[in-house]
UniProtKB/TrEMBL annotation:
GO terms for molecular function: glycosyltransferase activity. It comes from Microtetraspora glauca. This is Glycosyltransferase family 4 protein. It holds the Pfam family Glyco_transf_4. Residues 193-344 form the Glycosyl transferase family domain.
Amino acid sequence: MRILHISDCYLPRLGGIEVQVADLVGMQREAGHTVEVATATPGEPLPGVRRLAAGLPFDLPVHPRGTVHLIRLMTGWRPDVVHVHAGAVSPFAWQGVRAAVRAGVPVVVTVHSMWDPVTSGVYLGLQAAFEWRRWGIAVTAVSEAAAQPIRAVAGAGVPVHVVSNGLDVAAWRPATGGAVRGGGEPGADGVHVVAVGRLAPRKQPVRLLKLLKAARAKVPASIAMRATIVGEGPARASMERYLRSQGMGWVSLPGRFSRDQIKELLGSADVFVAPAPRESFGLAALEARAAGVPVVARSQSGVADFVRPGKEGLLGRTFDELAASVARLVRDERLRTSIAAHNREVEPVACSWPAVLDGFERCYDLVRGTHP
């Protein structure tokens, strides 16, 4: 099958969508498909990547004539299906949808973000202006939490399927034969709580520090506790100021880590925290769960698709419930051990690449069936 992926952002950027799309492209090529990518992100040439960059300030991934260029690409290359990847606001991606409709090419749209009421209102307005529900597209979301607001806007005429983000589950499984942390007896430096993510204001990283402080207050002083928050971003300075003002020297901010470094860090982790309330999926939390670490997350986020309370971790709906969940896992070694053992023994099959590839191929077959 000839598949054309369209995404505003792509490598060399290293955000969640960029990395996930790049991994999907690689897996589809390994499966025998012919795959190319069209993106508005400037950068060095890559095999099979068409860069339609407009040279805008700050390297904005937008092209004022993107629809025209994408129609030319589609009519020249003739893909069997166009797979568009969109965030909350993705002008180039939606130009790709419009181009595919005009070129008569079947199109699947994956929404990687969680729509808020404002975003839903925007797409309702676009429906009134362009009637996109009649374009014959299929939509996928990365979790049930992300799919719900999309279904409310798309209506009955646009199918919205859930296809998880993909992960090489075996690559994150802890090595056998050695001592395994992640829920067992804490090390000499205490119970280790880990979080991974971009330090951006919308991710509320200072609120994460407040959450750790609240959890620490619920743990007896006799139990040692430390935390590591991996990531980089504009909120780092405010986080450092908060840590100094609160005397939280037991929390470290080591910066951005590679995948191998994150895997090594998870080998020493006892608890993983993913507190963002509007997390559409939570790939870092999935990596921790695959590595055998108990996960604490919001019950209304996409993490709830692969973390069940008392099985793979603990869920909370409010700040207080999250703080109590972290404290409970820090205090309760038996519970940590039980959850960690389950996570090591039971794979998150729905998030494995074979399941993800199968889910997308079903969507491709669906839209291709409507385009003779």
